[in-house]
């Protein structure tokens, strides 16, 4: 099974080396899967891409896809399509570069894919799942996006956690049924919208509980402001 880890980056020089080494270690411990690691960098001015290129010299499983900074959704669509078309992925696993979601849970996601599920979400809202280190504003931000908009207004009920990046998605017969380049979603709302799109082609969802921690290095890409809500609402509706 070909598994492509997709890591979107912008100014992640403090995290990218450690993330790549972690993904390499996970791949080594799980030889039953054929891993590739795709870094989708939005022309980071801090030199993130240059660090990736140094790792690529020694490890051919590491790939770099560069592009203009348009938004998280745009970057993920670019990465999803590249994994489908160029890397022949059977499963893609997007995740953040800041270790807020623990990449060592990747084998747990894949075990559920092996059991027959098509979409496995790392969830902060089932079982022992939770968040740690969030400010009041970040909690409110997440509640509005995940509960108010996604659950109650948009009515997306397949999962309880709609806005996390960390998930495993089967490609054949699932992701490849979604016209990604036709999706007009550029920002953070992509996370919720892709769950909605996936729910139209499969009902085989599963959530595993995870602990989400606040990043310890680099700068957060989410802020509680009018622009965030404007982008999120535009993406969903």
Please provide a written account of the structure.
With about 240 residues, this protein is α/β, with parallel strands linked by helices. The chain is built from 7 helices and 9 strands, in the order βαβαβαβαββαβαββα. The strands form 2 sheets. It has a 7-stranded mixed β-sheet with strand order 3-2-1-4-7-5-8, sandwiched between helices. A two-stranded parallel sheet has the order 6-9. Helix 2 (about 50-60) links the parallel strand 2 (about 35-40) and strand 3. The radius of gyration is 16 Å and the shape is globular.
Topology:
Blueprint: E1 2-9, H1 16-29, E2 34-41, H2 48-58, E3 62-66, H3 72-85, E4 91-94, H4 106-114, E5 119-123, E6 130-132, H5 136-153, E7 167-170, H6 190-199, E8 205-209, E9 211-213, H7 226-236
Parallel strand pairs: 1-2, 1-4, 2-3, 5-8, 6-9
Antiparallel strand pairs: 4-7, 5-7
Helix content: 25-40%
Strand proportion: 15-25%
| Count of separate DSSP helical elements | 7
Q: Low-confidence parts lasting 5 or more residues at pLDDT below 50?
A: 222-229
How would you describe the shape?
A: globular
Give the helix/strand class.
Answer: alpha/beta
Largest beta-sheet characterization: 7 strands, mixed
Order of helices and strands: EHEHEHEHEEHEHEEH
Whole-angstrom Rg = 16 Å
Mean pLDDT equals 89
How far is it from the N-terminal to the C-terminal residue, by CA?
35 Å
Q: Strand order within the widest sheet?
A: 3-2-1-4-7-5-8
Strand tally: 9
Structural features:
237 residues; alpha/beta; 7-stranded mixed β-sheet; two-stranded parallel sheet
What's the quick description here?
The protein has 237 residues and is an alpha/beta fold. The protein has helices spanning 16-29, 48-58, 72-85, 106-114, 136-153, 190-199, 226-236; strands at 2-9, 34-41, 62-66, 91-94, 119-123, 130-132, 167-170, 205-209, 211-213. The protein starts with a strand and ends with a helix.
